[in-house]
Write a structure and sequence with these properties.
600 residues; alpha/beta; Glutamine Phosphoribosylpyrophosphate, subunit 1, domain 1; Rossmann fold; 3 domains; 8-stranded antiparallel β-sheet; 27 strands; binds 6-O-phosphono-alpha-D-glucopyranose
Amino acid sequence: MCGIVGYIGKREAFPILLSGLKRLLYRGYDSYGFALINNGKEIVCFKKPGKLDNWESRLLKMKFEGKIGIAHSRWSTHGEPSELNAHPHWDCQKNIYLVHNGIIENYQTLKSILEKEGHKIISETDTEIIVHLIEKFYKGNLERAVMEALKLLEGAYGLAVVHKNQNRIIAARKGSPLIIGIGKGEMFVASDAAAILKHTKKVVYLKDGEVANITANKFRVRNLDGKKVEKEVEEIKWTLGQIEKKGFKHFMLKEIFEQPESLENALRGRLKQSKIKLSLDIDINSIKRIIVVSCGTSWHSALITKHLIEGFTRIPVEVDYASEFRYRRPVVKKGDLVVGISQSGETADTLGAMREAKARGAKTLGIINVVGSTISREVDSGIFLHAGPEIGVASTKAFTSQLMTLSLLALYIQQERGNKVNREILRELKNIPSKVEKILENTRAIKKIAKKFKDSKGFLYLGRGVNFPIALEGALKLKEISYIHAEGYPAGEMKHGPIALIDKNMPVLFLATKSCTYDKIMSNIQEIKARKGKVIAVVNRNDKRIRKIADYIIEVPKTEEYLSPILNTISLQLLAYHIADLRGIDPDYPRHLAKSVTCE
Ligand code: G6P
């Protein structure tokens, strides 16, 4: 969370930083700020609370000059979104400026030491103490001063620092991603590739504990002990076109409509003559138990993974929130496979959980979208989603690609353990992208329902079995982008509590496609109708029984029950999107949220 971009070279830095920051808004948009070194003489700094978009036209008229600069888009941790708390932060002499992602856990202790030494700390942030520490250690060598300061920090950081009299940017990371972009006679630093993709595809990924000294023509990387580290230059595969809206009103809508393609990409090259090809560096036969850890939408994929793997292979699967797993002294041992699911590959809790699992002797497998991300680099083995960049804060295409990839994984384990592979499911996997396309061809019913219920005070989402996690996901999507309270529940549990909420104003969405619990769901629908609740049902085409009793119907093509979550979730994404849009909320940047959560 929080976005960083920096530039050093021959060009004016400001327009480059501005367009870079716009690409990073999905990392946080509480405030933004820039610091530019103006001809080696002075530093110009500008920062404001609020979203960059609201200020862009005014900013473009202001002439900020300088060929070295750093910029930041903030997701607040310590201190409200205000000008004072916005980054960059500076030292007492206003010589050194710094932008930072992450959280410094011992900042209170350091703050009191610094204040006793006479440093004036003016913001409520944890970040500001870093720049004062650098000031304390600065004796003409910025790199050395940064290293000395970093040695005192506990917590996480991705940061970039400039000094008024130095033609360089010092960048460092621990727990928060940072890359160096390499151009011709110019260099970039960024928290995400999206910020610099317009200028270069050549990047170097910093590792935890590394500090980069970057000038216009070269960079060198050292660890905190001052030892030089050789770095490999890698190439980003994403294209600029993939991070544009391409005529869609929002990234979220574009990404929903990209799903037929992203699902094809998840399958590509992995199904050959009824054989599943995954190159995993893991001895499948030695797995005794699987634990799946993740956060947010990815956690809903984890819940479905349990159904898939246990259903196909009979290997016991446990699912945990990554943030819970790490701190409860989990029982993990040799023979366990710990699977981490993460779109970004950077979520701090998931990363921490995977490290914990590895330390306890388990094998680790990452199901990741972003190539080059920290989790993808640290796991024993991994499968990439190939969904392309996902910009909308609410995950859509990455979620369905996770489900597709995890279905492949479950079948692959079945195959590698010499069991009979579930042929119907294998065959049906190939039909999923075109069935998603069919759903997207006609979204009239969903728009109508969105209009009808856009002002509802609450929503209930109910499902059973493999579609219970889809009820959770549908509710999460709605609350995160429309701010309507929504709850997902197992349909069978409704009678033990949530049924008390039902009245004529309560919309209840049922996932009611064909399944082994179809008749039970029918009864649950009747129970809602008997209490005058409004029933919206996601059903298969030509379902006459539910059509008769439900108030609103969303039709989806028939598929195998295990794969039905992929189709069913599409309608729920669209419903949440249209409700948010009708309520005048920008679903790409919902309040208080960020796409990639790199703090705990
Ligand atoms: C944030 C995002 C969610 C996402 C979650 C996990 O909360 O807003 O959309 O599901 O992080 O992210 P990951 O990148 O680990 O899948």
